[in-house]
Structure formats: structure tokens, C-alpha cells
Amino acid sequence: MRSNINDLYADAVEVQILTGMRIGELRALTEEDWFDNKIRINKSIERKTNAFSKPKNIQSIRTIDSNDRINEIFERRIKLNHLLFGDEANLIFASRLNGPLTYTYFQELIKRVNPELSSHVFRHTHVSLLAEKGFPLKYIMERVGHTNPETTMKVYTHVTERMQKEARDKLNNLI
Predict the structure, then answer these.
(1) For the whole model, what pTM was predicted?
(2) Nearest alpha carbon to residue 66 among 41, 95, 85
(3) Cβ–Cβ < 8 Å for 52, 45
């Protein structure tokens, strides 16, 4: 996908896949939200008004672990933003006008790559990847801001082909 869209939006997609953030949460990220290999998620940006708001619910306010790739993306975005906007830079994913990246344009770009996709698919992908790697359900729930395990299990945890193959292999080796 990275080769089909510009760097700002490609970085946003990659961070969504690596964090499971909702698009509004990602659009609202500021430099202050990234510290000590952590990302504080405590606000969102409304789709239609571009106004800052509280996240979807109280459970959505969370601090999650970052990783080397996310840190690399954030460092590059912040450096570029300061070159472009100087002291006015604050958003990590700033548009050409130093505002939040555009929600509708983001969705359009994704649909050009695959009409079946939306930004929320990347949240599902994140949870599926965590489940595939064996992360505990409680960790996954906290990472995406859920308190009810049924929500995570029903809505997000998609059994991947790899997990199905591993299960078949285990069944074949029961005895």
C-alpha cells in the first residue's frame, strides 16, 4: 500500500496497523502524546468538524507501548513538521496546512487501493496480528481500549490463516 499513497497517509496506515488506534485518535496525536516509548491516547478529532474531542469512551483513554518502527515514523514526522511549520508544529500527522490529516481524503486513498477497505480495517488487523502472535486477551483489550472481552473477541479477533494452519498441525499431532 505504501507505494500507492503519499508518505503522510502511508505512515498513518502503518501506525494504525502497529497500534490499533482509531483514525480520530491518530489524527489527534500531538508531540506531547509520545514519550518514553509510550503513546498517550486521550483525545480524538471529529470527522466532520475537525474539532478535538474526548475519545469514544472512558476505556479509550489509555497509554500504549510504542515500538522501534513507530518511534522512527514519529521522529521523522515531527522533524518534517518542524521544518515546514517551525514552532507552530504540534500534530504528529499534520497536513500541508498544519492541520490534522484529512479524514475523507484518507478514506478515499484507502478505497483507491482496495474498495473493500476503510481505516477501521487497520484496527482489526492490529488485533488479529496481536492474537496471532499470542498476546494475552487482556493486553489486547487494554491496548485498543476495551473493557469487555466479548467486544474484542466478537468484533476484532479474526482467526488468521496462519492460526488455522497451526491449529490443524496441532490436531494432526495430538497423538
Answers:
(1) 0.86
(2) 41
(3) yes
